[in-house]
Amino acid sequence: MPDYSTLVDPQFKPFLEGLMHVPGARSFPSVTALREATNAMSGMFPPSGTKLAKVENRTIPGPDGDVPVRIYTPHGTGPFPVVLYYHGGGWVICNLDTHDGLAREFCAASGAIVMSVDYRLAPEHKFPAGMNDCWAALKWVAANAGEINGDADRLAAMGDSAGGVLAVVMSLRAHDEGGPKLSAVINYYGSCNYPSAYTPSANEHANAPVVTRDDIDWFYEQYLTDPATEQNNPYVSPIRAASLKGVAPTFIATAELDPSRDDAEAYGVKLREAGGDVKIKRYKGMLHGFLSWIGPIDAAKTAIDDGAAWLARHWDGHKTK
Hints:
This protein is of the alpha/beta class. It has a single domain, classed as 3-Layer(aba) Sandwich (Rossmann fold). The protein has eleven helices and eight strands. The protein has an eight-stranded mixed β-sheet, with helices on both faces. α4 crosses α11 and α5 packs across α6. 50% of the residues are buried.
């Protein structure tokens, strides 16, 4: 196994010993126990001190009942651009609270409204339930942006890890269904491919801190009912779409020491080959999930600022008069 003490960014070293002893997802006696442990760990991070104009919890109509969302509004005068944010957690764990700090920081950095979506989780709600909740949220914002002081002509989708895959899926589905139009997509270390074949990064970093290769396998086992067939669905594995032509401009941020790194980057390469506007940036010395360390890890703030700059570039010229 690689010596992560020499590979991680020096700012990660104070956390490394603890991370190396975190049990794998498969070792927990139940999904409930895993969720409780994850929630407890997220509570160890200091809360974001970023001040925003407003943070509101509400629900919006979903395909099978109301979907909880949290809406973050920046200071300034709207209408603001709107970012649909889908949290990570392997489609199984995490929630609005575990990723509250990330959403707040992105709202402040981008000057956009961020709507964080509390989509349904597996294994209680297998694919495509959570994905359909995310799609309902995107359609709701496109139709009702004015209700939250948002600008429907400047919409983006963003997510980290499993949420990054969902953000990419939103761009595919929007293209397939003729809208809503997304100006841009941000995928923070979402693999975009079912791991039916292990990549070099999956082999080299199979036992990486935070997320192991087996963790990724286990999350997909919870998410899918029939992996043998569903793995080829482009809304599960976007890289397997018949065509990526016309998909929204996409920023892909990967972590150097992440088993899912190569799959995420391969999706970006395929999108570029299809004529897409793509930026792929690998963050040296970073582990999967590094955005959760915003504050102690400088690269987390850098990655947020890079994503915000990507959005600004693609919103330029589309501002509400």
